[in-house]
Amino acid sequence: MSTDTNTTAETTTEQATESTGDDSGGCTAKSSDGSSKQESVDEKIGSTVDDFDADPGQLTAVGLGPGHPEGMTQRARAALLEAEHIVGYTTYIELLPDEITEEADELYDTPMCGEVSRTEEAIDRALAGNDVAIIGSGDPNVYALSGLALEIIESKGATASMVDYEVVPGVPAAQSCSALLGAPLVNDTVSISLSDHLVPMPEIESRLHSAAGESFTIVIYNPWSRKRRENFQKCCEILLAHRDPDTPVGIVHGAGREDEEVMITTLGELEALGEAEIIDMTTTILVGNEETYVWDDRMVTPRGYETKYDY
Ligand SMILES: C[S@@+](CC[C@H](N)C(=O)[O-])C[C@H]1O[C@@H](n2cnc3c(N)ncnc32)[C@H](O)[C@@H]1O
């Protein structure tokens, strides 16, 4: 097994570009002249399907679940053990159990950001004849790379069938975190990411208003980073404009990881926790609906059984 750690996405993006890999979530890229640019400006698709002579291998997008080996599905483990090359963000490669990394021929990891170049690297390796797994936390269809992979395959003039593209689902953070909090997501739920890297903040605000104005429980992904403090503050203001300050809120940091931390608080207290350690890039926040309550240190959102049955 060989390990290939990249900071320059060498085969597919401009050589002079290096991801800063901080926790900004803003994915600023730094050029060799020292100037900062948005990553999307720098990442470009390089090769096309015509550049490859080999019979393509397989490409599989694998969701790891929350992070601990027990949280990974059997199907994900089997897909990773079968893969010749495993491609992913450095943190996720580091989360893989030894039995998987030792079995792979090559590991290719890049720091935070660089999603486009990392995904293209995985596709190019598959088009070059290797069986490749591209990994991510949770599920590949939740704010992750499964759609991007299909878009890039198409832009290369290839097809999904050519690389036998498959998605292996994983347990998303909403569900891992919900399980640690009791039963907060048992009824209709909306997920919203506060990352404005790809979606402009006014659009995120509009989505927050819509969700908070209806009776959904709300899952907040990407709640905070040093460069996005204002997004978190704005989110708290919008939620409070629609919901009672006593609304229960669950906060889970690092579900299934060594630094896992769980807290149940109220919407009125949430904004003040923005600077606390529990809220960062690896935190998911679950905001109850108007029926959610806290019982015995657990969040409970009734499904409605009590309206039909006596118990
Ligand atoms: C780019 S999204 C990826 C989501 C992932 N695909 C999923 O299905 O959960 C990253 C966000 O997921 C959430 N997240 C990922 N892993 C987590 C964990 N172990 N504990 C709590 N939240 C997590 C955080 O909100 C983080 O900012």
Automatic annotation (TrEMBL):
Q: Where is this region: Disordered?
A: 1-56
Sorted alphabetically, which InterPro entries does this protein's record hold? 4pyrrol_Mease (IPR000878), 4pyrrol_Methylase_sf (IPR035996), 4pyrrole_Mease_sub1 (IPR014777), 4pyrrole_Mease_sub2 (IPR014776), Cbl_synth_CobJ/CibH_dom (IPR006363), Precorrin_MeTrfase (IPR051810)
Q: Where is the composition biased (Polar residues)?
A: 29-38
State the Gene3D superfamilies in the record. Cobalt-precorrin-4 Transmethylase, Domain 1, Methyltransferase, Cobalt-precorrin-4 Transmethylase, Domain 2
Q: Which UniProt keywords apply?
A: Cobalamin biosynthesis, Methyltransferase, S-adenosyl-L-methionine, Transferase
* Pathway it works in: Cofactor biosynthesis; adenosylcobalamin biosynthesis
Biological process according to GO: cobalamin biosynthetic process; methylation
What segments bear the compositional bias annotation Low complexity?
Answer: 1-19
EC number in record: 2.1.1.131
The terms under GO molecular function for this entry are: precorrin-3B C17-methyltransferase activity
Is-annotated flag, keyword Nucleotide-binding?
Answer: no
Can you give the residue ranges of the Tetrapyrrole methylase domain? Answer: 59-270
Protein name per the record: Precorrin-3B C(17)-methyltransferase
Organism annotation: Halonotius pteroides
User: Lineage, please?
Assistant: Archaea, Methanobacteriati, Methanobacteriota, Stenosarchaea group, Halobacteria
Query: What is the gene called?
Result: cobJ
